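Appendix B. Chain record.
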Amino acid sequence: MFSIGNKTDFNGRKPLSINNYHRESNKHLKCTTYPLLITSTDFYRVLQLSPPERCHEKANSDFCEGYIDPYLRRFIIVDIKNWRLFISNDRYCMSNAISYDIKRHLSGFVDFENDNEHLSVLFRFVKRNFTCDDPGFVLLFPSTGDMFYWEDINYIRLVHELNGSKGFVHIKLPLLTKEKCIGLTMIPPAGSVVSTTAGRFFNIYPRNDNQRLSLVYRMLPLSGSLINIQCSISKITSYPSHVVAIRAGSIKSKYERIVYGLFSNADIYIWEISRKGCSQLLQKKNIRNLIIQRFRLDGDCVNELEFLDLSICKSDPYSLVCLIAWNENAPTKYYAIASVSFNNEMLPTISGFHKVCSYHSLVDSISARIFCPAPCTVIYCVFDSLPVIVCNFKGRETNEFVEESLFISNSYKQFQVMDIASVDAVLEDTNTLMLEFPAIALLTKGNGVVLLESTNCSLDGYSDLRFLKTRLSQYASQNSLLKKQFSVCSGFSSVLPRDRLFPTLLILCDEIARSYPTFHTSVSEILNYQFHKLMETILVSLKHFKLTSTERLHLWLKLAYVNSLVDIYDQLVREGRKSNILHLILQAMVKSGNINDLFLNKSLNIKLLLYSLHTFYKHYASTENTFNFKLLQFLITVNNVFGLVFGNELAYRQEEVIGNVDSTKISIPELWNIEIDSVNLLLSQIEKSIAVDRKKDFIGLKNDRNKKMLMKLQKQILHLIEHGCFLIHELTNSYTKPNSVPAAGADEYSSLEEHFRGRRREWLNYLAQIGYLKRAIKISEHVRDYPSLITLLNSCNFETPEDKVSTQRHYLQIFKDDFAIVLFTHLVETGQLHSLLHDFRSYESYLRKFLETNKLYNLLWVYEAESGNFTHASDILLRGDVILKSKISEQNILFTLSKLFTLVNEKGYDNNLVKKKMKEIDSNQRIVSIQREYAKLLDSTIVIAGNEEEAIVLLLEANCVSLHEASVRYRIVSNLLTRLLLKEHSPLVETIDFFTSFSIENNYYEFRLACDLLENSSFSTHQFVFLYLLLTQRFLLQLNWDETLRALTERNMDYLCSFRTVFQKLESKDFILDKYHSIHLFPKIICLDVLKSLYSTLFESQLKSYNHELLAEHRRCQKLYEERDLSSVLAQLSLLFKEEKTTNTQKETKC
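Structure tokens predicted for this chain:
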């Protein structure tokens, strides 16, 4: 089982990483015996036939050309820049290789001065007979037509000065002006064929007349004897289009051979060529229409085709394959293979057709080749750097194709492929047993000769499982040579489509999890073998297959299940059978009586095992009257199993950084999967273990053995808490991430996370108490439990306060804004305001966002002032709710600070704006002075006054309204004060308006006085309604709704009683609870006539201005009503006050 960063008592095992796995597996691949097996699959194997020596060390790598002959087991390399030639021996080795200086020895025949004319050369081996060990050699200069022939390659070592000397002959082909040779095809025993750019074909063959060697050439006919005669006489041919390929067919007799030619217009020419000087055109057919019809059968409309190459199988001279390219959607180019067969009447038919799926290109392939070394069985296609193997097998209805591909690495010049040749299959006489497999040989610059061999070219069926198994084995066994020369193609959708890949991979994992090693071994070794094989398969799959995150997690959980079985079995073996609770439970679960079958067959239901262990211990503990050693031993055994299972589950979930995993879509066929019940079982086990540990002071276990057991129990509790916290965190995130589709278990896991938070804090504090404070902190970090993390940090013994602040800053940098909110809230709630504003001043964005979001303007202006942002601090101070919510004694100081901040930044602002701002501050300061005096006299005035009118006069003489002097309200109150000072009659409406203008520190005395005055007044209906609505709206605007809602939730009657009298008086008139009246009726009754009747001292312009003020006040009240849902809140307040009144009445009645 994994431990999360620490060693555990649960038999920790960590899987090899992918790099470590390959490092271990490649230790045994060193071998010096050739051929060397590089890799293999169900369809092919790759062999290195010669040492990976640089066979062209003396040649210039930029201007080298090569040719390989697999039958002779030799290759040729020509360094064109330095005109050097190298021929290997008969085992593809360069020891005792032939080296030839072309320029030095052939300068008498060819002019090498003009290098631009000789930048290429054609060369081939010549087989004099089919048993010769030392072949001949031919060299052709395409631009001049000079051909040099050596009867034996050993004659190259001789110096040839004269044409016709021993084993050497030179001829010059009669090329036309600007005509060049473009192809050299060997057709032994009938010599060779040279094709030219002018559309002519020369058949060249050696002849020994009178013991003198000579070369004879003649032109091949294209359309009958008449054209042949014309060609011979005029050396001009009516060539229909350019030639694509000339290929040698079957051998008819000792000196005769069939030769095929493919032209760009889809014409296929078949010649019979004899070494005796006779050649004839046997057949000429065009296959273009046949292939277009075949495309249409597949539903494709293709009109333009391009023929790239032709190949003939020598064992079947009347079957050939063509490589075709077409543009379906420009500019992408697609490729197809067409098999063409000729019947007895030499009429062509399309016997097979396959679209190449593993290669598409945006540009034309530079060197597209096709090889057919086995008829109707294996076809090789090579596109520049990609060899594709197409295997044909018998399907249910028709023949089907399986495609494999390997990329040849051309990123480095030393690993480039210089030439490719095919090797035909060799069958037994009965044509049932294949003696030699078909293959292609690759001549590379740095890795010698590599053979790509098809080992299974006669498939009767196809299995996704078999293909996937061998492909994974190939990926796992790659050595350095394969990685340098080949890049294994992971995209094989043509063989195993994407929709079948992962289900097949799951079946393969199931098969591996139940496999057995070849040698007989113990159950424990078998389980470990299965685990490591499954791990190897999964690691290779994750590296080479493009799996989704959910599929990757699915594979990890399969491995977690198998790993848990290994660990549980090891635990079972160590515990022994005597008094072993694990053995008893397993014995009860198995039906056959053999516990090993549960593990070997992967049929152990871990979910049931955990439930049985938990239930057994719970029942045993309830029957024991006292705590004893056996009960402790049972508990440790159960905890071990829980730790193994959940530890493996957690470790493999965390092995990969898995993003966007929908755990609800994972249906694991194994007998273990994390569900809500399993998590609850783990949490219950942790609770019971902690309860036992807390009893250690009362159970009287004093000997060393019991103390060690208790220490072990505490370590187990630590790891179980880790597993529980981490798993719930992982599962909750996978269910509740923003982009996931809501699943059936999402609500359950969200609810579990909410209920688990309290447990988690308690458990983390428990870990801190028993000495695991650092581990508790790490857990809180991982699960992002910031409140617990802050609490645990407060428990740490820091040497200095600066160390604590430094640690808090460290976490602030890691967890950013989320941690900042929790930390700053904690500092505010605990009164650590100095630490908040000074220790974290550098985190400007976090701190300012926190203070503004929580509307802590009383701290924000201090922070801005200390940071030097005096203008911003002044603006914050002048916000109405900052100063007005402060006590009267503090307001004058705050206004003074605001004035100071404004003066500090006076130079940077417009002088008129500064004066206007200072005038506003001075006006507010005068108002604050009056309010401060009013606050002192308020209580004593009500007591001293003999009646309400006298009290009002006294209050108004020492008061003013909290608005600037230019407002209409200020003039109303000024007129009122003037008339009272002159002992004139004061209208009640002006008095009521004044009292509802402000409230001193939320004591609501003024509102009660205004209510009393209104009740005892004699106004008209419109005037009365207006004043009541005015009083209601201003009362609602004056209330501190944050405190009111909190008091309503907590039923804090001390706070609510401060405005209960006003509330009940307004409620009695049915205005405060009537949304229609309070919101919609007020604007309708406000008109100049009503205002004029109420405010006789105001001019009409002042009345209009005041009307706008009242409407603005109404809009604020309407917005408050909607935002706070006052209909519901006011109804709750009314019901609460009624209940309180009823309760008080009942108490008085009882008294």
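Further analysis of this model is presented in Appendix C.
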